[in-house]
Design brief:
Elements: H1 7-26, H2 28-33, E1 36-41, E2 44-50, H3 64-79, E3 86-95, E4 104-115, E5 118-126, E6 132-142
Antiparallel strand pairs: 1-2, 2-4, 3-6, 4-5, 5-6
Length: 158
Amino acid sequence: MPATETPDDAAALRVALRVRETMLAEDHASRALGIDIAEVAPGRALARMRVRRDMLNGFGICHGGLITTLADTAFAYACNSANHVTVAAGISVDFVAPAHEGDELSAHCEQRTQQARTGVYDVVVRNQHGHTVALMRGRSHRLKGRQVFASDEQAPQS
């Protein structure tokens, strides 16, 4: 454990990793789109997806709904990382550049705030060159009394 990491940090990371495993087991949409949950930590997640031919719209660029799905997936893993079942209450997406067939997209999500049962998260989607493709802000809602997985190890309260 690095000198700056506390036992609580290590426990929170273990919870986030177990949440990822639990969610991935039933995440058929991510699997179908080839989305990889590359990293997860408390309040953060990184999801990746390669743009395939079947993801292109009539203009030969990646369909905005699929870019949004990638961003929303990172959002889902970040906002559930404390083992509280959390759903999206709303999202706003801005597309700033097109993505093309073969592009490797990465969606990095970070929690901005978590108050009671409502959280706010920001997601940046970038291509393999580091160029921003889309920005998403998500508002989350924790479902009272529900956990992603049952465990004796409780997630730290945020």
